[in-house]
Amino acid sequence: MGIDISKINAKVEVEKPSNTFSFDVLNKEFSWSKKIGAKQRQALYKDFYTLLNAGVDFSSALDILANQQKKKTIKALILEIKAQIINGRSFHEALQETGHFSAYEYFSIKIGEETKKLPLVLIELHKYFNRQLKLRKQIISAITYPVFVLTLTVGVLYFMLTYVVPMFKSVFNQFDAELPKLTEYIIALSEKFPTIFLAFIGMVLLFAAIFKVYGKNKTFRSYKSKVLLRIPYFGKLAKLIFLARFCQFLDLLLTSKTPLTDSLDMVKKIIGFYPIESSIEPIRKDIVKGSSFSQAMSKHPIYGYKLISMVEVAENINELDTMFSRLANEYDEEVEHRTKMIGVVLEPIIIIFIGLIVGVIMVAMYAPMFDLSKIINGG
């Protein structure tokens, strides 16, 4: 027995989000906020689904959720949502009003209210955030060791060029010996290293400022996406992550019986990846003109042959929602595999890189020392 959504004062008119909606903010909201993180979100949606599906009325379900919270901030947030609903707002409007939920969440909740399938939407949101948490843990696990080793390498390089090489330089100057070209190059690099290091920090800050200022510019976003997709291995991983998200969104929307064109409109607003975002309006127009979804998608390389062919099959048997659910799971599995491989691929590369750097510096410093020892012994 589910909750009677008609008891909630839900407004059914479709509100168009502003065209100035910030996708960068949206992506941040997907991950975590100051009040409620992704881990708490997935637990809340699961518990809320369980209560509503068991027949608990909406108000009591919110009270139960609030009372079981250990964090006072989350409890206050739930009670704030309840107060908004009591004052006449619908559930999705209450979520939006708090400012702590993403567009994907309150648009999905809105669909659930309008189609009277709120419990289904809640469990899908739980699955979505559960997948995000799992992916985040996998990425952190995969890159922790490589990042640690790379950081250690930078520290060792800084120490050697700042302290060790100057010590050798003073010894070489005492004997006024002719040095190999490699040694001269390393010493010159050591002298310029503080300037190079500061220039590197400046470049990082400059790029951060450019991303901040031009982050919403379409030309910049298009160029940034093209560069990302061309990065070996990581470009493919990024593409898979966003295709998985694309399929997850359409799975939820189509399962909720939202029309395909309306679903695409919503995906465009929340996907946060320019190649997919920019392709959706042309796809939607082609569908309105009579093209099939798969035919419209085939004009855009970002989707790939596999996705397009599977969508074509799903259209023929009228099971688009089921197919997108299956595709989302397949993409998730591939993302999981590729994420695990990051550490496997990076570790040997980083170790070889460290060995080469340290080896070159040591050879450059010690080779002249052997020559000096011969001169001293001979003298």
Number of domains: 2
- Please give the radius of gyration in angstroms: 28 Å
CATH first level of the largest domain: which class?
Mainly Alpha
User: Per DSSP, what share of the residues sits in E-state strands of 2 or more residues?
Assistant: under 5%
**pLDDT < 50 runs, ≥5 residues:** 1-34
Transmembrane segments: 139-161, 193-214, 344-367
Organism: Ulvibacterium marinum
Protein name: General secretion pathway protein F
Subcellular location: Cell membrane
Topology:
Elements: H1 23-31, H2 38-53, H3 58-67, H4 72-86, H5 91-98, H6 103-114, H7 118-175, H8 181-214, H9 218-230, H10 234-255, H11 260-270, H12 274-289, H13 293-297, H14 304-317, H15 320-378
How would you explain this protein's 3D organization?
This protein has 379 residues and is mainly alpha-helical. The protein folds into two domains: 5-116, Receptor-associated Protein (Up-down Bundle), CATH 1.20.81; 127-379, Type II secretion system (T2SS), domain F (Receptor-associated Protein, Up-down Bundle), CATH 1.20.81. The protein contains 15 helices and no strands. It has helices spanning 23-31, 38-53, 58-67, 72-86, 91-98, 103-114, 118-175, 181-214, 218-230, 234-255, 260-270, 274-289, 293-297, 304-317, 320-378. Helix 2 (38-53) packs antiparallel against helix 7, helix 4 (72-86) crosses helix 5 and helix 7 packs antiparallel against helix 8 (181-214). The radius of gyration is 28 Å and the shape is elongated. The N and C termini lie far apart (99 Å). Mean pLDDT is 82; it is low at 1-34.
